[in-house]
Amino acid sequence: MPRGLTVRDELARYFRIGQAAFRHLHASSAPSLDATTRFAYDLLVNVLGFSTVSSAGVLTHEGHQFPVALQASDGRVPVVVVPPVEGLEAPSNYLRPDGRRRSAAIALQDWLNVNDGALWGLCTNGHAIRLLRDNRSLTRPAFIEFDLQQIFENEDFASFTMLWLLLHSTRFGQTETLVSDCP
């Protein structure tokens, strides 16, 4: 941080940047998948401090296809995106690369479970963002979800602080280390 600024000052700055991106996304009554993907990109780069975020599209592993929109930290953090009209648990019309409809959460969980290069991932629909962990047990999902709409529309700075502290790029480790080498 620059001299003279506190962590709270920086958090307030990132809160306002995230809030502006959220308002821009929801200025349209029905944001598209592309607009939601741009929002996710902006959130990752401008709010959460990821220096490398790239488009992924459909990734393949052992003949199976996985709809991953973005990859942060050189693939270490995959991101699945659906538009705001869809929930993170509902089967999506946008996530069917192999003909089978999946929810954003299941699509991400499937990718995390087969990909040894990622331990954590994010999925979002612009209203919420969810952090998932590689977890072979589907009977007990392992995730934390933040309600972006509630945070940004209600000026919930305390919840944003928790989001920022848990989802900041520094929490996922360095790209040249093992994926398990992270807080």
Would you mind describing this structure in some detail?
- This protein has 183 residues and is α+β, with helices and mostly antiparallel strands.
- It contains 5 helices and 6 strands.
- Strands 1-2-3-4-5-6 form a 6-stranded mixed beta sheet.
- A hairpin with a 2-residue loop joins strand 1 and strand 2 (64-72).
- The longest helix is centred in the first third of the chain and has 19 residues, at 7-25.
Mean pLDDT across every amino acid position: 89
H and E order: HHEEEHEEEHH
Distance between the termini: 20 Å
Share in helix = 25-40%
Low-confidence stretches: none
- Number of extended strands: 6
Going by helix content, strand content and strand pairing, the class is alpha+beta
With helices defined by DSSP (H or I, 4 residues minimum), what is the helix count? Answer: 5
Radius of gyration: 16 Å
